[in-house]
Amino acid sequence: MRRQMGRAVLVLAAACCAGPLLAADEGADEAAARDMTAVIALQGLPCGQVLRAEKKGDNDYLASCADGNRYRVTVNAEGRVVVVKQ
After folding, report:
1. Residue 26, helix vs strand vs coil
2. What is the phi/psi pair of residue 83, to 5°?
């Protein structure tokens, strides 16, 4: 479980850090959706594939899944990824 949390933190950190670099690319939304798909899967939550990842703030995303689920993906004060079903 610790390994999965570590991977989730890495994926979310990469998504947050790479965001400004990818902003000029048309594929930025696709990259964020792929990253959120991985983060949600590592948490063991149902999603399938993230169709849309909307950035709400620093380290704060709203992910809409193909199966209809929606999740808020954030990083808490301790640096842990938190995924909450909306």
Report:
1. coil
2. -120, 120
Give the residue among 75, 63, 71, 78 at the shortest CA–CA distance from 11: 75
Query: Other CB atoms closer than 10 Å to residue 83's CB: what's the count?
Result: 20
Q: What is the pLDDT of residue 5?
A: 60
Looking at residue 60, its amino acid is D
Average pLDDT of span 6-25: 53
**29: helix, strand or coil:** helix
Give residue-wise pLDDT tens across range 60-73: 999 999 999 999 99
CB 72 within 8 A of CB 6: no
Task: Report residue 80: phi and psi, to 5°.
Answer: -95, 145
Would you kindly state where each structural domain of the chain is located, as residue ranges?
2-85
Tell me if residue 42 falls in helix, strand or coil.
helix
Owner of token pair 């709400």: 56
